[in-house]
Amino acid sequence: MTFRFLPLGLLVMLAACGNRYEYSRASFNGPLQCAPYARERTGLKLRGSAASWWGQSSGRYAHTHTPRPGEVLVFRATSRVPSGHVSIVRRQVSDRTILVDHANWEPGRIDRAVPVTDVSASNDWTQVRVWWAPVHGLGRRSYPTYGFISPRDSDDSS
């Protein structure tokens, strides 16, 4: 008698596995990456992992903790984001919220006008939460950042 419902139970379990928002670690390492996307959009002459951009840009490009359109927000490397991440500021919405464009926050996608909120204690953009489409809101985790890189050479900034 119990075996009669077994196929239905298996079907329900398989349907649950079809969640389109389940990502494997490997899916974040596909052909679309945040650093080449940001480099192409901003003209920054930086290479390597996104987290290395902060150190590479020191003395070459202006660093700031105040977002401006066109600047690049650099995320530190963590266990969840081992290579770091970079996002391009589109515009500032409020003192603690900006909209960014970035690639591969969701695997294989370019997202535009994504909210990022400063949750740092000092209001200096060193800790942020990022919009996560699968939950239609800010993600639960916060991510450490270095700050913003201006695509202008450091000699051009005032």
TrEMBL record:
It comes from Gluconobacter kanchanaburiensis NBRC 103587. This is Peptidase C51 domain-containing protein. It holds the Pfam family CHAP. Gene3D superfamilies: endopeptidase domain like (from Nostoc punctiforme). Residues 9-127 form the Peptidase C51 domain. InterPro entries: CHAP_dom, Papain-like_cys_pep_sf. It comes from the Bacteria.
